[in-house]
Amino acid sequence: MPAMTRRVALRAGSALLAMAALLPFASMPVQAEAPQLKTQVPGYYRHALGDFEVTVLHDGQIKLDTKILKNLRAGEMQKLLALQFRDNPTPTAVNAFLVNTGKQLVLVDTGAAKVFGPTLGQVVANLKAAGYDPAQVDAVLLTHLHGDHAGGLLGADGQRVFPKATVYVAQAEANYWLAADAIAKAPEAMKGFFKIAQDATAPYAQAGALKTFTGTTEVLPGFKALPAPGHTPGHTGYLIESKGHRLLVWGDLVHNVAIQLPHPDVTIEFDTDAAVAARTRKALLSWTAKDAGLLVGGMHLPFPGLGHVREEGRGRYSWVPIDFAPWPDAP
Amino acid sequence: MPAMTRRVALRAGSALLAMAALLPFASMPVQAEAPQLKTQVPGYYRHALGDFEVTVLHDGQIKLDTKILKNLRAGEMQKLLALQFRDNPTPTAVNAFLVNTGKQLVLVDTGAAKVFGPTLGQVVANLKAAGYDPAQVDAVLLTHLHGDHAGGLLGADGQRVFPKATVYVAQAEANYWLAADAIAKAPEAMKGFFKIAQDATAPYAQAGALKTFTGTTEVLPGFKALPAPGHTPGHTGYLIESKGHRLLVWGDLVHNVAIQLPHPDVTIEFDTDAAVAARTRKALLSWTAKDAGLLVGGMHLPFPGLGHVREEGRGRYSWVPIDFAPWPDAP
To answer: Do A323 and B86 touch (CB under 8 A)?
Structure first.
């Protein structure tokens, strides 16, 4: 082994020395030539779906404890997390999906803004980092009216974040969360959830820009709503299709990918009807696993939340994320 | 289902109309309010390792056919790829790892520049996108001297891409590729590989900035070289450690994660000694799988190439990528 030499500050280039002169002395270790940047890459990811351009937007992450999951022993859940080298509580992504069809700019869910705390609320910043502006969004399709999906509709100023957009949500979802007496009737612990849903949609409703739909229907060209109830009454997946390429954005079908794919029976305490939620999850996992050509996108799957479901036998499944790829990745 | 209205160009905001006026008419579909951007997010990813800041840099991807893999039937390889929803040929990442220790900026491998074609060569662009400049790099540690690892040392102008950097490589690697008579002695089909290695390192050698090391040794503070021979004679992994947090950058231990983790016996035709390469792979997979606290980084693992090895029994392993996380992700 040869003698290794170490660089010293005297060898820094003039540009760096100029930069160093602007910094307080105490923060400059003698040998720090290139300060650590301590920033993450912007939280967006582009994927080609036929003629559609999909941009997944990261809203941030929130830690979810297995205490809020039901129907599996804590020790078994811990084992499943360890298999994926994940901690408990599990940092859990919140994603939204922006689709530019070439004719319309469509956002599926909006993130949480600040209704669920400081670790979320990056959808608009990442939409801008990805090269778009909220004012360009033509339509927002909501999977459901929980705060981490609809909260991003409302600006800190009380105005619409997407002033040009028409917002679409299932009629059953609107009936449940937006009824005039919904807050009054809600259990005390749930009143906040109802208020978030109502506040977020109110300025769109006032502007005549909140529309509802029922059943399995093509909400916009290329966007088919598929009822996926249980997590909420009107919880909806969107099957997005262009030139035969298909992406199912399944909303909150899965919150913890390490636990609920091997054990689809595991429900979460936010489910309005846990039994129906589990039945919906099993049906959609079975379908998506049988269709290798179908890409899946999920709001709480690890960012960018795109991948495939693999059948593991005995009603168990696993998640196979797509690989990072340059544009165009999969036309 | 209510009647859905479609947006028309007349509803575009004034800023967009101004932008549209700059575009040739023929390229503007009537309803295209927001042009598709068709760019990918920059190819870097930041990860905190103790006090070190790791930035993985994506050089691009290259398609590798299973024809170049040995010791497993083609049908079995196809099944393993299908399990991961991957195609054959498989788009395969080329990664490099930039580590800012706070005192030194250290790059592990350099990508291919243009020696392996147009789909690679993005390390410098992504290093810049990540906020650094090639002139800031203090040291380059090479895992080996193949073109997609050392090629990025050399600029299109024939000059050093990292003018301040000292380049470190194992003595056995230098002996094999850089000997004065190496090209003359090489088989015809391999001469190009030797020339790439010699061309890439020549300007550093001329400047006295090419250093070699032998055996298991701390090349720089926090960077321990671990001989991992077989793929090439001096193929080296680097164990990077800060504050008890450890990352093993294992170079080319694995080229096809879907096939060589379940079947570590599978070798690749670029191996200079396939039997030794397989033995090294088995030893390192066994070690990394037993040490859940050890993070692994690989040059051909799906970008960002960071994750853990899981033991599946009977000498089989699988790959568990880390989740995308904001900075700081795992201090």
So the answer is: yes
Q: CB-based contact (8 Å) between B38 and chain A?
A: yes
Find the residue in A nearest to B132 (Cα). Answer: A34
Taking an 8 Å cut-off on Cβ atoms, the answer to whether B102 and A32 are in contact is: yes
Beta strands across the sheet bearing A245-249: A217-220, A223-227, A236-242, A245-249, A294-297, A306-313, A316-321
> Could you give the percent of chain B with pLDDT greater than 70?
89
Rounded CA separation B240/B218 (Å): 10
Across the interface, of A34, A85, A212, the residue whose CB is closest to B292 is: A85
- Tell me whether A330 touches chain B (CB under 8 Å): no
Closest-CA distance, B283 to chain A, in angstroms, reads 21
What percentage of chain A has pLDDT greater than the value 70?
Answer: 89
ipTM of the complex: 0.89
Residues within 8 A of A (CB atoms), B 68-97 only = 82-86, 91, 93
Give the B window 171-210 contacts with A, CB below 8 Å: none
pLDDT at B198 over 50: yes
Which of A40, A84, A135 faces B326 most closely, judged by CB atoms? A40
Residue A329's pLDDT band, with cuts at 50, 70 and 90, is low
Phi, psi dihedral angles at B244 (to 5 degrees): 85, -5
Question: Do A50 and A244 meet the contact criterion of CB atoms below 8 Å apart?
Answer: yes
**B61 → closest Cβ in A103, A326, A328:** A326
User: Which secondary-structure segment (H or E) carries B208?
Assistant: none
* Torsion sign over Cα A49, A55, B305, A90: negative
CA distance A275 to chain B (A): 27
Sign of CA dihedral A270, A273, A276, A280: negative
- B138 to chain A, any CB pair closer than 8 A? The answer is yes
- For B118-155, give one letter per residue: b (16+ CB within 10 A) or e: eebbbbbbbbebbbbebebbbbbbbbbbbbbbbbbbbe
β-partners of residue B248 are: B239, B296
Task: Indicate the length of chain B as a whole number.
Answer: 331
Query: In this structure, are residues A238 and A46 in contact, taking their beta carbons and an 8 Å threshold?
Result: no
The torsion of the CA quartet B53, B54, B58, B59, rounded to 10 degrees, works out to 100
Q: Is the peptide bond before A304 cis (omega within 30 degrees of 0)?
A: yes
Entry pTM: 0.90
